[in-house]
């Protein structure tokens, strides 16, 4: 009997297939847990991380190690270049294709990541957004680098008051996306968000990993220190000429760019990475906790109990 045919595991989607989503904040232990689960079920993993897909980014996005890659096949890691446009719609198409490929040989697939919008797009679909004027995008990114989050918030308040009252105004990536849509199309990004859920013909099981706040903060601080020891500074130096690309508007890179541009000391830049990562983890938890379909467990939760308690459909 294959592990996928465990008598307690009975996917109830139209095709008898299931995708198990492992989500949660950064540094909670998602990679290790997902690999162990994929091994247990003899299946493969699709990453739902909006930065690990870029082959030029390595240390700063906490990709799985070479040994972990060899243990379980992963998709949407090193799959794109930072010069390519990658967004939730691109991920939806990519992930649906890969999950169907996995389903040709396995009853289950595992998806793991912390990019909530990508996971939502995979589960429910996402509305098509208008083409973005690249000159507009460049101007917004430059403005953010020069003036920070408050500038972005003010621009949104002026240009798209609808989003300002309804959207995530503490998330710079979301703000930049909303602003570029408004300035490129003349319409609020909310105009394109119909919230009509698409139906998938496979079961989706959502599992969230969480830790006590003190432990997560400790993990984050240790991870940032380890990244610096592994050579994050040199990695960012090599990418400095690309700092205005959308792919580089991410924690761990933009703070080091500030150091390289003389706007911060290295010590302050590293501390800012830790602060911004903690804030990002908090936003991730806020996003995922809004979804009542998630069942929350510790990263140390035993797989045998997971099989019986969460995957049986009981």
Relevant terms:
314 residues; alpha/beta; Rossmann fold; Histone, subunit A; six-stranded parallel sheet; 6 strands; 48% helix; disordered N terminus
Description:
The chain is α/β, with parallel strands linked by helices. The protein folds into two domains: 3-127 and 196-212 and 280-309, P-loop containing nucleotide triphosphate hydrolases (Rossmann fold, 3-Layer(aba) Sandwich), CATH 3.40.50.300; 134-192, Histone, subunit A (Orthogonal Bundle). Helix content is 48%, strand content 8%. It has helices at residues 30-40, 66-71, 88-103, 116-124, 134-147, 149-159, 161-166, 172-185, 213-230, 232-238, 254-260, 266-289, 303-309, and strands at 18-23, 45-47, 74-75, 108-112, 203-209, 295-297. Strand 2, helix 2 and strand 3 form a beta-alpha-beta unit. Mean pLDDT is 91; it is low at 1-10.
